[in-house]
Amino acid sequence: MVKVAVAGGAVGGIGLYIVEAIVEAGNHDVVVLCRRASHHPVLDKLGVPIVATR
């Protein structure tokens, strides 16, 4: 299984839809990259880790 990093998936918008689609497909592990540490209820529910730079 390939690990995919998605930038901008923690703030909503298109990045979140991309993360949801990758997780639903079930072929890859997903990590979300963001500038600040945050929690997003959808990402928490999907079990997707968030990696923050600050």
From TrEMBL:
Q: Which InterPro entries match?
A: NAD(P)-bd_dom_sf
Gene3D superfamilies on file: NAD(P)-binding Rossmann-like Domain (3.40.50.720)
Q: Which SUPFAM superfamilies does the annotation name? A: NAD(P)-binding Rossmann-fold domains
**The protein's name in its UniProt record:** NmrA-like domain-containing protein
- Recorded source organism is Phanerochaete carnosa (strain HHB-10118-sp) (White-rot fungus)
- Taxonomic classification, please? Eukaryota, Fungi, Dikarya, Basidiomycota, Agaricomycotina
